[in-house]
Amino acid sequence: MDLAVRAAQLRSERRPFVEAIVVRAQPPTSARTGDRALVLADGTIEGFVGGRCTESSVRDVARQVLERGESMLLRVLPGGATEFPDAPGATIAVNPCMSGGATEIFLQPQMPAILLAVSGTSPIAEAVADFARRVDYAVEPVRGTTVPADAAVVIVASHGGDEAGVIRAALDAGAGYIGLVASRVRGAAVLDEVDPTTDERARIHTPAGLDIGARTAAEIGLSIVADVVRVARSGGLARPSGAGGRAGTGGHVEVPRPVDPAPGAAVDPVCGMTVTITESTPHLTVDGTTMWFCCPGCRQRYQKDRVA
User: Fold this and answer.
1) This protein's superkingdom (predicted)?
2) Which of 6, 17, 29, 102 suits 203 as a labelling partner, its CA being 20 to 30 A distant?
3) pTM for this structure?
């Protein structure tokens, strides 16, 4: 599998994942320095960074990395090992089931770029799109009143345009930022037509943009993108989780998207490890209760102890 090609595909599909690379390996671990893998939001691992026990730790930490949006260094050690001393910024996972060796794995989140949907064709709309790309945002046009899911939306008012319809579609699609480029009088008239609730009104910004005294199209575009960045950095814009989405066309329209449901977690009853539950996680159902294990070895040990 070409992981670079696969990573590019996931980015094009706007699916979050974690890139994991082995930066240090101590024999007899099966991983080698430079081994890589991609960890999807549902816990699927594509590539290789170690055996079953290591994979369990990588899945658990990758889930935290996606939740926090921050990189993390993972030290995977066998029980009682002290070869890799603790250090700030590192997370240690002690795997009693490991037969020896140790690894350090760097996990880096790869989150979809913030999506900015622009409605209208004018120098201001072009400036907004240009500045958005300069800060590494993805940009899509709004076609009619169809608003992409997971998008911030900027609407440039024009004669005969359906600004109210686009705003309503954006609200229904859950847009965290909706900017209307219009005069105060025109903006007030559009809002009267939309008739938003109090919570919805808090997401609508008109006149759009920070007050920097902007006059030219470029300056206005800069002020609008700066305001979107402000809202994004304050946590007002959620990035796609991979769990699907909607787009609005005056109501709700389902948009086909890859679904990566967030995995659950359980504790291995043998070694005490936290295990991320996926389709391939070893498990055993006893008296109607499902037990999850870090590896087949722990499952076999549990079965053997029950027989004994």
Assistant:
1) Bacteria
2) 17
3) 0.64
